């Protein structure tokens, strides 16, 4: 395999599976938000690839923006501390909000974001995640829309990183344990 894949154990979700998953989510969201004022917020950095694919499959008018939260750094475990590094200035009153994330792990990031945006009084706040690791939840958090349920493995690619690398790998891949278990 090319050098880009040197730390990869194996592909978990292929490009074809991802395309089918995005198509399905786009249809569900299109159906649910028909005729409703919609704001879609992507969570940087991990969510950028999924966001770009997903919004092009949502066939209703929308406002679109990105927010950014603090990352894991170079570790593979969540610190439990969530910090909003970049906010959105789109007004949410009278609109429905959909937050788009790459993955739900402990659930800490999204439960924090959900509370924070609910306080701005939109008509509703819903969550769409590409991938979900329910086994690792620390707080109760259910995504309203999710692509693939995955096992408790550290994954990279399709926007997700390890140590800021591998976001550009087009598939979702399992990282070799030897990379972070030293
Ligand atoms: P949570 O707050 O623990 O749910 O973690 C959410 C964030 O941690 C995600 O948005 C990702 O940026 C990152 N994350 C969680 N699991 C993984 C993984 O397996 N690979 C890469 N990033 C991950
Ligand atoms: Mg993220």
The gist of it:
Helices cover 23% and strands 29% of the residues.
Class of secondary structure makeup: alpha/beta
Considering DSSP H and I runs of 4 or more, what fraction of the residues is helical? 10-25%
The proportion of strand residues reads: 25-35%
What is the overall pLDDT average?
94
Number of helices: 4
Extended strand count: 9
Ligand types:
inosinic acid, magnesium ion
End-to-end span in angstroms? 23 Å
Globally, the shape reads globular
The sequence of SSEs as H and E is EHEHEEEHEEEEH
Biggest sheet strand order reads 4-3-2-5-6-7
List segments where confidence is low: pLDDT < 50 over at least 5 consecutive residues.
Answer: none
Evaluate the radius of gyration: 16 Å
- Largest beta sheet, briefly? 6 strands, mixed
Description:
This protein is α/β, with parallel strands linked by helices and 182 residues long. The protein is built from 4 helices and 9 strands, in the order E-H-E-H-E-E-E-H-E-E-E-E-H. The chain has helices at residues 15-33, 48-55, 108-118, 177-180, and strands at 8-13, 38-44, 63-69, 84-86, 96-104, 124-132, 145-149, 155-156, 172-175. Strands 4-3-2-5-6-7 form a 6-stranded mixed beta sheet, with helices on both faces. It has a 3-stranded antiparallel beta sheet with strand order 1-9-8, with helices on one face. Helix 2 (48-55) links the parallel strand 2 and strand 3. Helix 1 (15-33) crosses helix 2 (48-55). The longest helix is centred in the first third of the chain and has 19 residues, at 15-33. The protein starts with 7 loop residues before the first strand and ends with a helix. The relative contact order is 0.22. The model has no long low-confidence stretch (mean pLDDT 94). The protein binds inosinic acid and magnesium ion (MG). The site of inosinic acid has 16 residues, from strand 5, helix 3 and strand 8. Magnesium ion binds next to strand 5.
């Amino acid at each position: 395999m090319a050098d880009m894949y040197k730390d990869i154990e194996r592909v978990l979700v292929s490009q074809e599976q991802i395309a089918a998953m995005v198509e399905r989510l786009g249809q569900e969201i299109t159906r649910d938000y028909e005729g409703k004022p919609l704001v879609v917020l992507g969570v940087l950095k991990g969510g950028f690839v999924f966001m770009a694919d997903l919004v092009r499959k949502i066939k209703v008018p929308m406002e679109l923006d990105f927010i950014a939260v603090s990352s894991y750094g170079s570790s593979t475990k969540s610190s439990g501390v969530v910090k909003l590094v970049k906010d959105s200035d789109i007004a949410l009153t009278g609109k429905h909000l959909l937050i788009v994330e790459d993955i739900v792990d402990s659930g800490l990031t999204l439960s924090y974001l959900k509370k924070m945006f609910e306080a701005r009084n939109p008509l509703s706040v819903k969550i769409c995640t590409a991938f979900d690791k329910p086994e690792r939840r620390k707080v109760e958090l259910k995504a309203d829309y999710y692509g693939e349920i995955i096992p408790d493995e550290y994954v990279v690619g399709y926007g997700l990183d390890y140590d800021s690398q591998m976001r550009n790998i087009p598939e979702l891949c399992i990282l070799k344990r030897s990379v972070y278990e030293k």
